[in-house]
Here is the input.
Amino acid sequence: MTDTKPLFFGLYEQACVGNGSGAVSLWTHPDDRRLGALDLRYWIDLARRAEEAEFDLFFFGDVLGMYDTLGGGPATALEWGVELPAHDPLLHIPALAAVTERIAFGATVSTTYEHPFAHARRFSTLDHLTAGRIAWNIVTSYLPGAAANFGLDVLAHDSRYDRADEFLEVVYDLWERSWDDDAYVGSRELRRFADPSKVLRVDHEGAHFRVAGPHVSPPSPQRTPYLIQAGWSPRGREFAARHAELIFVGDSDPQAIREGLSGIRARAAELGRDPEQIRAVVGMNPVLAPTRIEVQQKLDAYQSHYNADAQLAAYAGWSGIDFAAYADDEPIVKQSTNHTQTKETRSDAPPLTAGDVRGRFASVTAFADDRFIGTPDEVAANIEEFVEESGVDGFLLHQYLSPGSLDDFSTLLAPRLRERGLFGGRPSEGTLRSRLRTDGADRLGADHPAGARRR
Amino acid sequence: MTDTKPLFFGLYEQACVGNGSGAVSLWTHPDDRRLGALDLRYWIDLARRAEEAEFDLFFFGDVLGMYDTLGGGPATALEWGVELPAHDPLLHIPALAAVTERIAFGATVSTTYEHPFAHARRFSTLDHLTAGRIAWNIVTSYLPGAAANFGLDVLAHDSRYDRADEFLEVVYDLWERSWDDDAYVGSRELRRFADPSKVLRVDHEGAHFRVAGPHVSPPSPQRTPYLIQAGWSPRGREFAARHAELIFVGDSDPQAIREGLSGIRARAAELGRDPEQIRAVVGMNPVLAPTRIEVQQKLDAYQSHYNADAQLAAYAGWSGIDFAAYADDEPIVKQSTNHTQTKETRSDAPPLTAGDVRGRFASVTAFADDRFIGTPDEVAANIEEFVEESGVDGFLLHQYLSPGSLDDFSTLLAPRLRERGLFGGRPSEGTLRSRLRTDGADRLGADHPAGARRR
Here is the structure.
């Protein structure tokens, strides 16, 4: 694979107070500032910190409903602010782009609930306004509560992906095919905005969408936003092989990751794509302190503000399983197919009982990987080993405390990673895509189904 | 009516290069900066200027397709950038909110192409992030090209309004009813985000939408964004009487405006609303210079960068009439029902021939009102008279040149208006609604169909 040094680092965020990717209830910790997430100042401060910390990406997850699986209602989610509010991530990015210069932004948008014309327009707007600092995390959504908010029964997993495939056909045509490279003139002297002979309608007519076009935006720096994909199911991997440029890996075992990525890249090559252009990151929840004793003190403090029910409410939503309906010794019948972050999604995981799950959720480190908990030297060594074994290109940082976890990363861990050549000095100019591709291109090539649509 | 001094001033903008509300082709003038509209810096500069100029509102129009009525295709629109690009206005506002402190923002969003759940989430996000500096201009859309981009045949005028009525029912329930005033707790000490017993599902089931809820955002400063409405047709006026807080008047005759507003306010009172809370603004395209000779020089310079076809392409889209299909002496058969800005929409206007229309469009002042062209003293006097006759509360400024028209307003006209007590010193703190209501309330009262939904 391509050289993975220095590593790519993103901050994983969500426009909410109770951030399920860290530990939901830790907004109650006195050092945490997530209660300010309703206020733009919280986000501006955090984005500036991430840029100062030389992060490459500020990433937003998203949900379109409440976590109402646990106990059959949203009571726990509301008590603890589990991924609430669910504010629109896209509406945070322009503000953060206005107050930063280098860091790129990623936003999760579902192909299940948006219309491809409006979606293409939104990302073209963002790609222009951010000068190519934008990525789209393609998801198909899983929460039944979200489906009910849009008047849909939740689509079956595979048919969500079918709709996603057609959605992508449409947006690729709008982004790549509708305007030729030289269709935009933009010249006062020639008194010409664009050359009409080089702008095409798309006239898409499919099972899910009819879209006439032309696209209402000239080619933006990247045209298609940089494409992120997080599905790790068989169908998700096939989708990644076809479309993804950055894979948000849904596993924590280095060898399984290496095999999974290898499979995705082999399939991508079969499909005619350049597998070298597929990058991968994995989530990490570090807990860092200068000494082991201080690490333990931090964990104890986190634990004292941790609520297992809040975390279980998030996990119930991700997995679609209402653990409250199971006795402790009852095995969980339904296999999780949605969430990408937990060990349970690995196909070789043994069947769990509800008691096993509740037991695991007693600890604030239920979602953490021990590799990333320790002194800076320990964690830096573990990261190097993990990267060598797994072949990932970088990490998305989940914060236990915001902005404390980011600050700890920056002050404690980054210097150690820098010594190992794992951090710092990555390209920070130009489009996000150009920073991640081996050829430095701003736009997708003809080997990708988006680039292939260009005339 | 309520005291109209000092007047309310908004800047009318659209996230495009060829701004149809001024004169489309004037982006080709060497002093104009609209060609920078694809770049965030243009917008940041303009918003800062508008705030420094003590404007109350930065307003974005919007379209969701190309102007393809004239000649049956988008060629003229593409040549001249007629309301192109059609970038998403909502994605500009967070950036502008981040770099300003006082000015409020308005955005046009169609009820025809959005889903009410996603829409409610977007405006709740914006109302939180801007601390209540946000307004929604409710439109039902008219461009056939937009309908084709969403796989819809363009809905008949009245059925667009029916859909809009149901759309508003849903968003009002999400904004006002789903969360009680004290449902959000947000307390670290109590370890409580919200009180689940005070958060309701909406369970809307109607002809157009099924939306379960609850809303995914706690009550924002204004809850419902400040509501603007621009329709001036009979159905539009009925809609305004029910919903609008600020009417963007579709007429230029002061007496007709007074009568129209009086009719809307009387109807609002019949419906149980407080008519004092309904405000009105009208568009103005001023051309200002210290002397008459310099005014004429400006007009000559504008004229030399004016293209009648470009302006006619915009007008054809607004009116739905393909003037290219008519000979000069042919009367225009179809009555315009869409556009709110031109004299032709007045019901007492005589039938026009295509030649009449083309004749009018020969001049860069085709859309201007002579009252607002002149020396600062002349225009200030005309504004005072216009306000006294029409009863409007303020104006939306259309710029011939950006930012030159705004700067002219600020340096030449504002001082004269200030002397007359017509400009400056308006409230600039708190929510937009509190600045415009006689009672200073942040939220709608029970007399309004949105406020009436609150428990």
Notes: DSSP finds 14 helices and 14 strands in chain A. Residues 335-348 of chain A have pLDDT under 50 and may be disordered.
